[in-house]
Each structure stands twice: as C-alpha cells, then as structure tokens.
Amino acid sequence: MTFHVIGGGVAGLAGALALARGGYRVTLYEAAPAPGGRARALPDGTDNGTHALLGANRVALRFLAAIGARDAWIEPEPDGLPVLDLADHTARQVALSPFGWIRGARRPVGLTLGGLFALGRLALPGADRTVAAALAAHPSLLRTLVEPLTVAALNTPAEEASARLLGNVLRRLAGPGAARLYVAMRGLGPDLVAPAVATLGCHGATVRAGLRLRGLVREGDRVAALDFGEQVMALQPEDSVLLAVPPWETGRLLPEIETPQVHAPILNLHFAHETEGPVRFIGLLGGLAQWVLVRPAGISVTVSAADNAVSLSEEAAAVRIWPEVREAATRFGLPGTWPVAPPPARAVRERRATPRHTLSPRPRPPRRPLTNLALAGDWTLPELPATIEAAIRSGEAAAAALLSAPLPRDQ
Predict the structure, then answer these.
(1) Number of separate domains in the chain
(2) Are residues 351 and 218 in the same domain?
(3) CA 53, CA 73: separation in Å to the nearest integer?
(4) 31: CATH
C-alpha cells in the first residue's frame, strides 16, 4: 500500500507526515523545485513574508514539536506589540491579550467600555455582516485593533470581510496564552519546511520535486493512475491519493469540485539590511506596510489585502515602504544604522494568496470525493481563515479520511 501525496505545501507536508508516522509507504510529489508552497523560503534563505503563529494555533504548534522545530519559534514581543501610527507618529506597546488591557497604557487606542462590548458581540455567533459594519460605532477601535487583525487573519479589507469568520478567530484567542505571538527565528524555510522534509525522510517517505500532476486517470469512483506528462504512474488497487494543491489546481484536476473563485493578494518585500540585536516584530498603522519582521539577516515587510499595492514595482514599493520601516526602527530604538535611502529589496507577489473571506459563503468540498482520494488545503476548511493552522489541520484530516477508508474487497 502506497499513499501518493500531491503537493508539497504545508497541507501536503502535514498529511504526508501523518501517514508516514503511521508506518505507511508515502511518496510526496511537488511541482516546484523544492517543497514548501506558499511557506517556501527564497533561494537565499529569506522567509517569504512575516508569517506568525499565535498560541491559539495549537495544531500548528504541535506539528512544529513533532518535526523538532518548536524551539525555533520564538516570542519576539513578550511585553506587548510595538505599534507605530504613521498618521500622528505616536508609538506605543499594545498588549496582545485582553487580560493585558487592564493597564491603560497597553490598551488599543479607542478601546472604551462600549468598544469592549462590541468586540464581545463580534465574537458571538450570529447573522453575518462585514467587520466594518460591526464596528461602525467605534471607528477608532476599528482602525487601531480590529482592522489590522482582520487584514492579518483574513487577508480581506474590513469593508468586505466576514464578521462571522473573524468572530471564529476571536473566540480562539480568548484562552490563556492564546494571543502569544511566535515567529520563526530564521524563516519558514529552515524552521518549518526543512525540518518537516527531514522528518519525512526519517520515517522512510520519498519526496520527488519538479513533477507536476497533469491529470488523474479515473476508473469509476477511484483514481487508477497519476499522469505526470512524460510518465503515467498506475496505482495499485490498495493505493490512495492525498491531493493538497491550490483550489484552481483542484478545479482543473477534479472539475466537479466547487472551489473558491475569488482571491486576495499579498505583497511581501524583503530588504537586504543586516541588523544587530534580537528578532523584532512591529505593527504599523496608517501606511502601506502593516507588519515588519526584523531579523539579523534582513527585514521582511508584509502588505496583506494588497489590491492597490501588489502591482507596484520593487523600486516603487521600496521607496514607499522603507521610510515607514526606518521611522519604526528609530522610534522603537532598534540598534544599527538606518540610512535614508532604501537598501536593495526583493518583492514577492502572491496574487492569489488566499481566498477572499467575504460574506459570500465559501464552498465546503467533500473531504474524500473519490474512494481512494482525499482533499487537503487551507481552503477546504471554510470555518477557518486560510492560514498555516488551517493547512496543517486539513492535511491531517485528509490523512485520517484515507486511513478510515475500507480496503478493496480483494485485499
């Protein structure tokens, strides 16, 4: 029995590991030159974006522990998130947990008793509306807390984003330690993808990169062969397929599956600027940049819901963003030199980074649409935003669905 995992992103890696740890034969196929998907590192090792995890992401943190990478994820701002408001140039530290808001200096700007009740109502299940409509009576709190959280978690502007889906996120942040922020010390490549691939190897799994699945050869309600173009691989009756590819690829391979059709972009900008001191994570309001991740090897900036920024050239993006980064660095006393001229920068544009999390219901595909095939991918869990947590959950769920399938009658 062999499990064929198609797609080496986070969902595919998680599904493959769940199967390999069970002692099964696993082969993972990745179309790109190396696994990683949207969590890949750039060729020089730079992390693609300011990906972060929260204490509420318990499945993702458990996965990191399973691949021996948990200690590589550190808490850069344990005393509160540094936030610079570029509109009035005020700098403050904001507690990530509501328990920290008892101290007035650590509260988000605009947090009143009425605003606190509005947050509570937002976290309760109910009829859906946009996040902006839900916080319309509290515009300052929307701007300083809720909108940044919405854009970070849902990658969708507050004027479009689903309040119900954001409420799901808020409920997960309610427990002790749930709002603690973690980032990879070196990047998702060395601190997530590489240890996951190494752990797969330790369990006997095979990884084959540079192979794009062209089609599924079907016989009735099962996959009979995998078409890789120059090679068509026949499956044994007991073999199964875990398909962990983007929604548009799933739609190409399985046209009968309903997939998300509208997506939101993310622009990541990586500055070649070495810094002194520890890893830092800073939030920005009122500018183009939203999150700044400062590592000794370089600086990564993320612009989520980047409809108006994703088409900027590298030079134009750097000219606009570097002054924001420089002001944040100087206001929060980051060591090192911060020149006026922007250093060399590299842009990574993901035009279909995530589904757009609007009021329109997202499709929920069947986990196992064919008898020997299961689907994975963050988009397959519409009750969660498309994040690392959702990707890992989906991969593990797909593996469990395949393991629960009965063997063919002749086995």
Answers:
(1) 3
(2) no
(3) 9
(4) 3.50.50.60
Q: At what angle do helices 147-154 and 163-172 cross, to 10 degrees?
A: 90
Question: Can you tell me whether residue 364 is helix, strand or coil?
Answer: coil
Exposure string for 381-410, b = 16+ CB within 10 A, e = fewer: bbebbbbbbbbbbbbbbbbebbeeeeeeee
51-70 pLDDT, tens digit per residue, is: 899 999 999 999 999 999 99
Q: What is the pLDDT of residue 375?
A: 98
- 358-395 pLDDT, tens digit each: 999 899 999 999 999 999 999 999 999 999 999 999 99
Residues 255 and 289 in one domain: no
100 confidence band (pLDDT: 50, 70, 90): confident
Q: How far apart are CA 356 and CA 345, in angstroms?
A: 27
- Cα of first residue to Cα of last residue in the chain, in angstroms, is 10
Q: d(Cα 319, Cα 306) in Å, to the nearest integer?
A: 17
365 and 243 share a domain?
A: yes
DSSP string, 107-120: SPTT--HHHHHHHH
pTM above 0.85, yes or no: yes
Residue range of the domain that includes 136 = 97-179
268 part of a folded domain: yes
Q: What is the mean pLDDT of the chain?
A: 93
In this structure, of 99-108, 144-153, 358-367, the range with the lowest mean pLDDT score is 99-108
Q: Which residues contact 112 (CB under 8 A, 6 or more apart)?
A: 138, 141
Rounded CA separation 167/78 (Å): 24
Are 340 and 399 in a shared domain?
A: no
**Minimal CA–CA distance to 246: which of 125, 355, 400, 127?**
355
Q: Would you call 135 helix, strand, or coil by DSSP?
A: coil
